[in-house]
């Protein structure tokens, strides 16, 4: 049996091998780190709904935050490597992948795409080193999919300061983040603008959200902004409309698509290992036709999704990516992940709901990935608008 099918069973078409050797080596190092430091503890942290913050300095040594950004201490590698990093982390735990996606993608990405050169130099090197952790505040208690036209958090300029008022909800990392990117609607011109609100700023308060059934390790927060004053120097220079917000979301939707592939892959790998060891009627269940059929269905879903994401990342590197392409990938891969983790849980029978068998965690986490960064319906409408030239959002 070759190395791919033995050690990388979900990479059936050997897509990992299209990366340069140094990138493959980084993925192997990341895989080793996850196996040694994350896999043994993650169920405990998932149960307690706590984040293993002690892992951050060790993760920082890998240099994987914002791996496709150029300059400011980032690796300057390809979007394809960034995608495989998301996949690798998610195949062990989707919460840790989400943490990285928020920090290195949404938060650092907002500054990378919309910040001035001075702002990039001020914040990004520390974010690349993961000495400062970022969050991204867009979703609100009453505004999710309608953020483009209905954002209720306001900003008002007063001299050299901006005053922010409102609330944000479901904001990953915000309970302990140092750098919080907050999107608010300007009361004067009605446009959405982006700001960096640093930890400890008066008027900025967070409260951890409890009782989640998915991504329990992620520290999602309710943010309250009460006459929160930030200097004009903290207003992202090129974040002046929701179109700028959308630029960030387009980039990170590809990351979420890759994360969905990793979610399905993790469930598939656990199901495959289980099928080889679990015995019924005197032999491993992996030797029964119906079980093999389920495994192949899972593999087909993972492979199709991985191939789609692979091409999306290539288009991004070539400067030919589009909002529609990212939305199609996010839509398809999250639907496929849901189906894959469901098949994995079914294969394990009653054991599939035991946390110790791991698959149940992927089943729960797939539900969150399915919804955040654009629901299936919203992404379908983005693709539909691209196909027909007609917007059908309202």
From TrEMBL:
GO terms for molecular function: acyl-CoA dehydrogenase activity; flavin adenine dinucleotide binding. Pfam families: Acyl-CoA_dh_1, Acyl-CoA_dh_M, Acyl-CoA_dh_N. Residues 247-387 form the Acyl-CoA dehydrogenase/oxidase C-terminal domain. Its cofactor is FAD. Keywords: FAD, Flavoprotein, Oxidoreductase. Residues 21-131 form the Acyl-CoA dehydrogenase/oxidase N-terminal domain. SUPFAM superfamilies: Acyl-CoA dehydrogenase C-terminal domain-like, Acyl-CoA dehydrogenase NM domain-like. PROSITE patterns: ACYL_COA_DH_2. It comes from the Bacteria. Residues 135-228 form the Acyl-CoA oxidase/dehydrogenase middle domain. The keyword Oxidoreductase applies. One of its GO terms (biological process) is fatty acid beta-oxidation. The keyword Flavoprotein applies. Belongs to the acyl-CoA dehydrogenase family. This is Acyl-CoA dehydrogenase family protein. It comes from Paracoccus amoyensis.
């Amino acid at each position: 049996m070759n190395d791919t099918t033995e050690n990388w069973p979900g990479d059936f078409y050997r897509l990992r091998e299209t990366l340069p050797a140094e990138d493959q080596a980084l993925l192997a190092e990341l895989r080793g780190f996850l196996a040694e430091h994350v896999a043994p503890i993650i169920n405990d942290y998932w149960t307690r709904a706590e984040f293993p913050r002690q892992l951050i300095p060790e993760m920082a040594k890998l240099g994987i935050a914002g791996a496709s950004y150029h300059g400011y201490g980032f690796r300057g590698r390809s979007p394809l490597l960034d995608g495989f990093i998301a996949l690798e982390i998610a195949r062990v735990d989707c919460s840790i992948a989400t943490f990285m996606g928020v920090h290195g993608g949404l938060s650092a990405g907002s500054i990378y795409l919309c910040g001035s050169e001075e702002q990039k130099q001020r914040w990004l090197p520390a974010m690349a080193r993961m000495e400062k952790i970022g969050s991204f505040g867009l979703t609100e208690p009453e505004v999710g999919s309608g953020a483009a036209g209905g954002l209720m958090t306001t900003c008002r300029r007063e001299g050299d300061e901006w005053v922010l008022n409102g609330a944000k909800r479901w904001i990953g990392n915000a309970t302990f983040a140092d750098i919080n990117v907050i999107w608010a609607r300007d009361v004067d011109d009605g446009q959405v603008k982006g700001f960096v609100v640093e930890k400890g700023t008066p008027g900025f308060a967070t409260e951890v959200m409890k009782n989640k059934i998915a991504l329990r390790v992620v520290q999602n927060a309710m943010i309250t902004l009460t006459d929160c004053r930030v200097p004009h120097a903290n207003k992202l220079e090129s974040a002046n409309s929701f179109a700028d917000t959308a630029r960030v979301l387009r980039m990170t939707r590809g990351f979420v698509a890759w994360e969905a592939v990793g979610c399905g892959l993790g469930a598939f790998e656990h199901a495959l290992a289980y099928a080889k060891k679990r015995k019924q009627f005197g032999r491993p269940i992996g030797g029964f036709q119906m079980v093999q059929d389920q495994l192949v269905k899972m593999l087909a879903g993972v492979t199709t999704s991985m191939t789609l994401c692979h091409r999306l990342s290539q288009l991004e590197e070539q400067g030919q990516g589009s909002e529609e392409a990212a939305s199609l990938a996010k839509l398809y891969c999250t639907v496929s992940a849901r189906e894959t983790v469901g098949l994995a849980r079914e294969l394990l029978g009653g054991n599939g709901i035991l946390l110790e068998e791991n698959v149940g965690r992927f089943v729960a986490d797939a539900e969150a990935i399915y919804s955040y960064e654009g629901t299936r319906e919203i992404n379908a409408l983005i693709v539909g608008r691209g196909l027909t030239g007609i917007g059908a959002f309202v």
